[in-house]
Amino acid sequence: QVQLVESGGGLVQAGDSLRLSCAASGRTVSLVTMGWFRQAPGKEREFVGKIRRTESSTYYADSVKGRFTISRDNGKNTVHLQMNSLKPEDTAVYYCAAAIGSGGYDFWGQGTQVTVSS
Q: What single-letter DSSP state applies at residue 53?
């Protein structure tokens, strides 16, 4: 089993930056991909971005490309989501997720709220 705990959410103004962190514990050696998702009120959960644990490759949703950056610290089993130039439409609960294979994500964090005021 793997446990994921997000941190770093909060209330910011449009144009500000925020960095989220996701700390993984348990059988982290089995993880292949770490991802970030978000869910705004009344909307479905959407993909934000992902990073592979053994490579530096990252992939982002078009809505955040150029503004958000995912990085990893394998020594600390932590993944970060640096969010710059935040917009009110980025307001959502942000979730960290982890996959042990090429299929869907197997483990999820509890989420952290990000609110961007205009």
A: T
